[in-house]
Amino acid sequence: MAAPMRIRQPRNFRDRKDVLNELSDAELIKRYRLDRAGIMLVTDLVRERITNQTERSRAVTPEMKVLVTLRYLATGKMQLCSGDDLGPSQQTVSRVITETLFALSRNEILSQYFKFPVTLENCHTKAVDFQQIAGFPGVIGTIDGTHVRITAPKEFEAEYVNRKRYHSINVQVVFDAIYRILDIVARWPGSVHDARILRESSLNQVVFGRGMVPDGYHLLGDSGYPCKKWLLTPYLRPQPGPQSDYNRAHKKTRNVVERGIGQLKRRFHVLHGEIRVTPTAKVCQIIKVCAMLHNICKDRNIRIPAPEDIDEPAEDIEEDYDNAPLAVQQPPLPAVAPRPREGLLYRDEFVNLHFE
């Protein structure tokens, strides 16, 4: 008896919602953090890289790939991307996010949106913006580290455990006075101290180390960093008078980086909770792409949606211990190398000149 013929069942495709044309800019910002023009700008940055080389009618378009990725970065939850009427299956969502993040995190894309001031004109503009905060002169950026929680990696697991006893990437970030990111380093395990990340960074070795920034312009950092001619830190035991005035102005000005980190993590909730992807290189891609998109939002004057307007669940959101008030921050680890005397002497001269 001949076996019965198998009849191939037709594939069922979910309808894909045309959100770019059906939703208002306000709704798009609420869900994807960018308006329609911003979404198209991001898509055009990587269109050639993420366009499928196929003539299938159901191929995922570049616009859809960017929307899926933005939705994931805004919420931190891949299941919301597939359950959001966008259409792609869970497997497709994972593949699309990986492909789009890889395209967006290339240096030729990131370098368009992270520009550290090195010309006299740009440094002066940044310094004027900062001086309006608390009268602190010559500041072009504020620097700090922030931890992004990750799942325990399979390799070198212990190196990623930070002093709060969870696994993380320690991210160095520099903000200007209007909360735009000037520089970001996202590649170091959570156990690495902020001072070492700075020492190994291009800011120390190239930008300031080779004198690319004009004299008289500085970054502001907390007491976990070494005091340098280009990096001013607060006095640990300030004397009444100029040193205390300096510390007050320093704290108020440096708070920009604390608020900037808060803005970045509120805008992209994937950075607020635990990033459940592997390997860690992909986590670093996520961090850098979020920072780039934050700058695009700043360029387009797109505000962070109010908490009541954000439609994703918030059970994974936690307070970032790096954004605590300065008075309760933990002291730096004792393993930091002694500060060079030259930087401390320069700070004293700076205080006597500007805060007498």
UniProtKB/TrEMBL annotation:
The keyword Metal-binding applies. One of its GO terms (molecular function) is metal ion binding. GO terms for cellular component: cytoplasm; nucleus. Keywords: Cytoplasm, Hydrolase, Metal-binding, Nuclease, Nucleus. It is found in: Cytoplasm; Nucleus. It comes from the Eukaryota. It holds the Pfam family DDE_Tnp_4. Its cofactor is a divalent metal cation. Residues 143-295 form the DDE Tnp4 domain. InterPro entries: HARBI1-like (IPR045249), HARBI1_animal (IPR026103), HARBI1_dom (IPR027806). Transposase-derived protein that may have nuclease activity. Does not have transposase activity. Belongs to the HARBI1 family. This is Putative nuclease HARBI1. It comes from Petrolisthes cinctipes.
